[in-house]
Design a protein that fits this description.
Distance between the termini: 68 Å
Number of domains: 1
Oligomer: single chain
Shape: flat
Length: 107
Amino acid sequence: MARKGIQWLRVEWKMRIRKRKAASLPILAMTNLALASWETIAHRTMMMAQNKCSPAEYQRMVNEKATAAMQTGMKLISSGGRASMSSLMAPWLSKATANAKRLRRKR
């Protein structure tokens, strides 16, 4: 009887260890992308509402998305459709975090 109890504790302990698995890189990258995007959108929306958004900022918005889409497409094509999610999201993440940082200093 005691032996079954010990074996049950071992099984339960192993299950607990598996549940504490670290988050994968794409999930963290997506979370960082979402947070940086929300911050950038909030800053730019405020600039537009206050009529402080320059034509250069509007042009930057369009160019960044076009560049990131092109880089993602090229990565996908060059890898034959086998690129990792992290590498496909990298251009978007780098632009979003750079914008958030730049607009944070601009306030």
